[in-house]
Amino acid sequence: MNPPDLLAALPAIPKDEGGPVFAAPWEARVFAMTLKAHDAGLFSWNEWAETLGTELHKDDDLPLGTTAPGYYDHWLSAFERLLTQKGIAAGSVLSDLKQAWENAAKSTPHGEPIELAR
Description:
The mean pLDDT is about 80. This protein has a domain at about 25-60 and about 70-105. The chain has a two-stranded antiparallel sheet. By secondary structure, the protein is mainly alpha-helical. It has helices spanning about 5-10, 25-40, 45-55, 70-85, 90-105, and strands spanning about 15, 20.
């Protein structure tokens, strides 16, 4: 399959006429972190594909009229799941970081960089 055929076969990936796109910087960052984690040998592509597929199929069970999470929300969930399954990060640590990020984002004026307290 050539790349345009692959993209057509994966309709959930956000894309425009030029190919895949990221709607927000965090999407590009989690994409890059996933590639780096794979390059570091933390998981295989088969493990990644299976985990991401499981996350994407969770939408199949949503009640009618429910808005499904975005593609990269699923991507992030799959990445977090692999990190916890492999013992690389504890689920509670990831949850705490997510909450800290949300708190910092809410308290940061628009246009200013978000910084987490150390």
